[in-house]
Specification:
The complex is a heterodimer. By secondary structure, chain A is of the alpha/beta class. Chain A is built from 10 helices and 10 strands. Chain B has a 4-stranded mixed sheet. The chains are: A alpha/beta, B alpha/beta. Chains A and B meet through helix 4 of A and helix 1, helix 3 and helix 4 of B.
Chain lengths: 255, 374
């Protein structure tokens, strides 16, 4: 689904990634973890095509990201949905128009069909119909994320990229948002890639965890295997007070 | 979705004797290239036919919407479909009935409300402006009593950014306007043989009127918009709130330096631009009327009393003050969204230019007996 080979990134003299490889299979739910400034979001932006690595190749759906004509590239972009950290809703459009926007741009669905699909997506992310006319400035943080998720899903993507999906949400909302993503992953057979700092989110969501350290992916394995992986970052991340408690909670739920 | 990998292909529809079977991938992406053909085929299916969806590969909510519309908003009489397809159709069936609430339509009441709101907004602008000026006055008093608090670095940065950096473009515009004005006037004056009056026309016109107004329009577009946008973005990113939280007066640190800097920089910029415009006029007069530079420079003080220069300086300072005040006023009114930012920046530049021209007209009347040789 997503294949990164030999990615190298640098900002001026600072090298962020060097010879980074990652292969994500269809249907996986991959969490990308790493210390602050290790280039997680940058890697996500490489996959979206907002930035280009100076070395290496990004492949999506088996094809290089920037191959083919403009139309082919545009169609490829429509096969994945992105949830930005701050939601990135258009502040001039209301909730329904925001969700409908990618669909309208496609010029395939009739206005009535757009309405139906928007209503269905809103129900999917547990928004009430009367929220449709609200402006983004009137929404709470959790609702912004829900609307942004609905917008990311409206083109029925195969791949969903989430940048800090639970950052800025209270634990309760964060848990329900995680449950929502997990439910959607199951129902829509999505492939999901997310960047997160939150061990709870990570434990609840991921089928695989990619650990970004020393400018490359040092480990790509399931949660159980990652926890036992011997690396200073993994130790700090999962072995810290918060990490241990979150893992204990996670195991408790599964027993 | 049955098997995400299998049955990869374009969506298709086969209609035989009361039986409709669909095959291929029915997803937004695969339907998009042939949507109108599929719509026609679906519409052509006779009512009461038996539908079979079992050969469909992938099936998403857009396809479900398409089918639901083809069925006229109710379940087909006879349907063969997998559980997940039925679920997708069921989800659509629940949302197809209810319409999304739409923003209310424009009515007569809205017109009255809009009119009232406009008046109230106007009043709030005036109130805000008075408050801003009052606060600036208080800040100024504070700075005079505590000279250590004076935002000198910000003022100096402002003079550099808004004054020094505007010099090249002001020079270019001034020079060209001078050339054009001189050229046009020379054509007329030549006809009357009143060549030497070019000095009076250019001197009075540029130093007294054109220089200050020209610079004001340039600066309103260049620095006024920048000020509004800067304050606006600081509002969007909560920087202004952060300053307040740190106990730092936003007017003292953000507004006062800008207002003072522009009030100081504008007269100098006016002098510079007027000089450049006169130079352009001189060049043009020399080419057109064969007036030497020496004659021009020599005649200028006699033709244009020094009071005009002071009026030009005064206008420059006043216009600078107006532009900076208006720009900061609109900048502080920006609400945290992109629409508001663009609306306020536009309003800032338009209001600043209008107010400058208005003030210029008032000043022209007020100073009509000063510095005009009769």
């Amino acid at each position: 689904m997503v294949s990164l080979t030999g990615i190298g990134t640098r900002f001026g003299p600072t090298v962020i990634h060097e010879g980074l490889d990652l292969e994500v299979a269809r249907g996986e739910m991959v969490s990308l973890v790493g210390g602050s400034g290790s280039g997680k979001t940058t890697l996500l932006r490489h996959i979206i095509g907002l930035t280009r690595p100076y070395a290496g190749q990004v492949e999506l759906f088996g094809e290089p990201l920037f191959s083919g004509s403009a139309t082919v590239q545009r169609d490829r972009r429509r096969r994945f949905g992105v949830l930005f950290q701050q939601g990135a809703l258009c502040s001039a459009l209301n909730v329904a128009e925001n969700i409908a926007f990618p669909l309208r741009e496609l010029r395939v669905a009739s206005p009535a069909e757009v309405d139906t699909l928007v209503a269905q997506k809103m129900a999917m992310v547990e928004l009430e119909p009367h929220h449709a006319v609200l402006m983004p400035a009137e929404l709470s943080g959790g609702m912004v994320k829900r609307v942004a998720l609905a917008r990311a899903l409206v083109l029925e993507p195969e791949l969903l990229l989430l940048d800090e999906p639970t950052a800025g949400l209270d634990p309760d909302r964060s848990a329900s948002f995680v449950a929502l993503i997990r439910e959607l992953h199951k129902r829509l057979s999505l492939t999901v890639m997310l960047v997160t700092h939150d061990v709870d989110t990570l434990a609840a969501l991921s089928t695989k965890i990619a650990v970004l350290a020393e400018r490359r992916i040092v480990s790509y394995a399931s949660l159980e295997e990652t926890v036992t992986f011997d690396h200073p970052f993994v130790e700090r991340f999962f072995g810290g007070e918060q990490g241990r408690r979150a893992l204990a909670r996670h195991h408790g739920e599964h027993r | 979705m049955m098997d995400p990998q299998g049955a990869d292909g374009a969506p298709g529809i086969v209609v035989s004797e009361h039986k409709v079977s669909l095959h291929g991938d029915w997803t937004l992406r695969s339907i998009a290239p042939c949507v109108s053909g599929l719509r026609r085929s679906l519409a052509a299916v006779p009512a009461g036919a038996a539908w079979s969806l079992t050969e469909i590969g992938r099936f998403d909510s857009f396809a479900a919407t398409l089918l639901w519309r083809a069925w006229g908003g109710k379940w087909a009489a006879s349907l063969e479909a997998s559980e997940s397809q039925k679920n997708a159709l069921d989800a659509i069936s629940r949302h197809a009935v209810q319409r999304l609430p739409k923003p209310a339509c424009w009515t007569l009441i809205d017109f009255v409300v809009g009119l009232g709101a406009t008046v109230l907004v106007l009043l709030s602008h005036i109130a805000d402006m008075i408050r801003l000026v009052g606060q600036l006055f208080l800040d100024l008093v504070h700075v005079l009593r505590h000279p250590m608090d004076a935002p000198l670095k910000e003022i100096s940065a402002g003079v550099y950014k808004m004054g020094v950096k505007a010099m090249p473009v002001a020079a270019l515009v001034g020079f060209l306007i001078g050339v054009v004005l001189s050229y046009l006037s020379a054509l007329q004056l030549k006809a009357f043989g009143a060549d030497i009056f070019i000095v009076n026309i250019l001197g009075l016109g540029i130093i007294r009127e054109l220089g200050p107004v020209l610079v004001s329009i340039l600066v309103a577009g260049r620095s006024g918009s920048a000020m509004t946008a800067q304050l606006g973005v600081m509002r969007v990113t909560e920087e202004i709130d952060a300053l307040s939280a740190m106990g730092i007066s936003r007017t003292l640190r953000l507004v006062l330096p800008k207002v003072v800097a522009l009030t100081l920089a504008m007269p100098l910029l006016v002098l510079w631009t007027s000089g450049m415009a006169l130079l352009g006029g001189m060049v043009s007069a020399w080419i057109q009327l064969d007036l030497s530079f020496a004659f021009f420079v020599d005649t200028l003080p006699k033709a244009v009393p020094i009071a005009n220069l002071y009026i030009g300086f005064f206008k420059g300072a006043l216009f600078g003050l107006l532009i900076a005040l208006i720009a900061c006023h609109f900048g502080l009114r920006v609400k945290p969204n992109t629409e508001s930012l663009s609306a306020n920046t536009t309003a800032s530049v338009v209001t600043a230019i209008t107010m400058v021209i208005l003030a210029d007209a008032v000043l022209a009347i007020a100073t009509r007996s000063i510095g005009v040789p009769l």
